Amino acid sequence: MNPTDTPRTDRPLTDAQADAEARRIIADVYRPDDAAVATPTAFRDDTPLPTYGDMPPVAQPGRAPMSGKAVDDTARLIGASVLVSVTGGTVSLVLRASDQADPVVLGVGGASVAAVLLAAARLIGRAKTPATPPETTVHVHGPVSVDQRTTHTRTHGVWVRNNHTEKP
């Protein structure tokens, strides 16, 4: 119903007319439309899925795929940059407000902190990873039996007991 469907009058409606008009408007609102009844609320596509062949993967548009370590490093870098920006801005405002802001002193102080942090990060990185990974060589003499088992467990709760017993 459009607002133009209701005739405008300059005199107010009586109580009986107002009651009848209110009932008519409410009935119009709750009357189902034919289009709304015919519109489905769910759809299932039963067409068969395409088969996969020997086609190599194609690079997708947008952001390049990244490893979990790269994502973690990016998050750390963003967090550190926000922290450094806020801290540096606060120090700059305090020095500026106290008229102690000397550009040479600020530059030397910032460069020395950055140099110390870079040196510490390089030392920690070298300490975590060995120069070359250890080489593993396996020598097998005699018959070999390969046993590949997969255990599916569902553990949830506060106290969990895992029973990984072998079934013959």
What does this molecule look like?
The chain has helices at residues 15-30, 34-38, 68-97, 103-128. The protein has 4 helices and no strands. The protein has a domain at 102-128. It has 168 residues and is an all-alpha fold. Helix content is 46%, strand content 0%. The protein starts with 14 loop residues before the first helix and ends in a 40-residue tail after the last helix.
Question: Could you give a quick summary of the protein structure above?
Answer:
This protein has 168 residues and is mainly alpha-helical.
Mean pLDDT across residues: 77
Provide the β-strand percentage band: under 5%
**General form:** flat
Rg over alpha carbons: 37 Å
The N- to C-terminal Cα distance equals 74 Å
Question: Which spans have pLDDT < 50 for at least 5 consecutive residues?
Answer: none
Keywords: Membrane, Transmembrane, Transmembrane helix
Transmembrane segments: 77-98, 104-124
Keyword list:
single chain; 168 residues; mainly alpha; 4 helices; 46% helix; 0% strand; flat
Outline the secondary-structure elements:
Layout: H1 15-30, H2 34-38, H3 68-97, H4 103-128
Keywords: Membrane, Transmembrane, Transmembrane helix
Transmembrane segments: 77-98, 104-124
